[in-house]
Design a protein that fits this description.
Chain lengths: 241, 107
């Protein structure tokens, strides 16, 4: 029984652990009760609600957020690395078309996207309750971007990812966990890339390496997601009822 | 239904039941749980119970009393009683409106 209670953060256990354990001993838990305790432990880690201030749990939460932020920052470097690898791939001639075979960069590309999704998950978890739209958008963004990373030619998944990212960003700005600049970046930079793809931006050479340079601007999305996490921006605390 | 507690998300409804359970005197976790199950007719999980208790205590709607061995009783604060009254009056008004409309339709 105590193993279930051990799932809760230390500060939470210090305050409520003994009571919860006594309750579980008094009324042996069903499977549903056990699942409810596991869910409660996750909730206590994500949304510490200790009376008399939440100093210890908030620190714990901030550290997790900061680690996620650093992982996301590393993702920006991994993204740039994937482009460097792709740009050094063999040139392929297909009729009049000439392009780089960037398949060797694909695992690095996917890894970069996974690190971005780590940042998105941490951003979603820091949204104050209830945050159904923001968290739903994070799911859409995460699934969309990972699928796009595995098959970049399926543009619909990338589009879903970018829309999810923008909605999550809007929720984060409203909650105060993101600066407005982060939202501007996650909306404007993909829009710029799409504009280039549609030929709306003049003066862009159509050479085989041009795409790598245009895609490099997307690294700013990793920075926009990572920075608020690394800086430890917190949500505005709602007034007491 | 539970305006004022809505910021508690999925804990809003269990919190309202807990406030009702404490409205006739202090209770510890197990007693709250059984009382809520009796009131609502649905089981209340231990994780949800303590998630809601922590939120209510943090917001000053309930307070913890001295523990009796490992059982710690909780009681409603003045703010908790005011909040509960407002919630129940809101629900009563809602019920009155709904019933009146049903009667209008029936006549």
């Amino acid at each position: 029984m105590s193993r279930l209670v051990d799932l809760y953060p230390r500060a939470w256990r210090a305050r409520y652990g003994g009571e919860l354990l006594a309750l579980l001993e008094e009324r042996p838990p069903t499977l549903a009760d056990r699942l409810d305790v596991v869910r409660g432990a996750f909730d206590a880690r994500l949304h510490p609600q200790l009376p008399g201030g939440d100093v210890a749990p908030v620190d714990e939460r901030s550290n997790v957020g900061r680690r996620a932020g650093w992982a996301t920052l590393a993702g920006a470097l991994v993204w740039l690395l994937s482009l460097v690898v792709a740009i050094n791939g063999p040139l392929v001639r297909d009729g009049s078309d000439v392009y780089r075979d960037g398949m060797v960069a694909m695992p690095i590309f996917v890894l970069a996207m996974i690190l971005l999704v780590v940042g998105l998950a941490a951003t979603a978890l820091r949204l104050p309750e209830p945050a159904r739209v923001g968290r739903g958008a994070a799911w859409v963004a995460g699934v969309g971007l990972i699928l796009w990373a595995m098959a970049p030619w399926v543009l619909l998944t990338g589009l879903a990812g970018v829309i999810g990212l923008a909605v999550l960003g809007l929720a984060a700005v409203r909650a105060g966990t993101w600066p407005a600049l982060s939202l501007v970046v996650v909306v404007a930079v993909p829009a710029f890339v799409v504009a280039v793809a549609m030929g709306l931006v003049g003066g862009v050479d159509d050479g085989p390496d041009t795409w790598a340079i245009v895609f490099a601007t997307l690294a700013s999305i990793w920075l926009a997601v990572a920075w608020p996490l690394v800086a430890g921006r917190s949500a505005r605390v709602p007034a007491a009822t | 239904m539970t305006q004022g507690l809505t910021e508690l998300g999925r804990f809003a409804e269990p919190s309202l039941y807990i406030l009702v359970a404490l409205s006739n005197g202090p209770k510890h976790g197990y007693a709250i749980m059984t009382d809520v199950e009796e009131i609502s007719g649905a089981p209340l999980g231990p994780g949800t119970l303590y998630g809601a208790l922590a939120r209510l205590e943090r917001r000053g709607l309930i307070e913890a009393l001295e523990p009796d061995e490992r059982r710690r009783p909780y009681r409603l604060t003045a703010l908790g009683a005011t909040t509960l009254k407002a919630q129940l009056e809101g629900l009563a008004g809602f019920a009155r409106t709904g019933l009146a409309r049903l009667e209008e339709k029936g006549t």
